[in-house]
Design goal:
The protein is mostly helical. It contains 3 helices and no strands.
Length: about 90
């Protein structure tokens, strides 16, 4: 009977260690999951900010301003504008 008790004690100890190990791994994975979700949220916020910045840089008024200042470009006046019709082009 003592051998059976000793065997059962060893089995209970092995099961207890298995449960403890499984709980530790589950907690570790959950912590990793939370940190990855936080990183994902931070990247999503940064993406939103970058899209806003891109739309700001690409406005027509800004493009016109940069073209005028940096490249010396200007809108053509009505006298130098030529309109070509499709029939005339053929």
């Amino acid at each position: 009977m003592s051998r059976l008790n000793l065997l059962l004690l060893v089995l209970v100890m092995v099961c207890a260690i298995g449960v403890i190990t499984a709980q530790h791994q589950a907690r570790k994975r959950f912590t990793e999951l939370e940190s990855e979700q936080a990183a994902s949220k931070k990247l999503a916020e940064e993406w939103t900010e970058l899209q806003l910045e891109q739309s700001t840089w690409a406005t027509h008024k800004r493009v016109e301003s940069v073209a005028a200042k940096s490249l010396g470009m200007r809108l053509p006046d009505a006298a130098s504008t030529v309109v070509v019709k499709m029939e005339a082009a053929r």
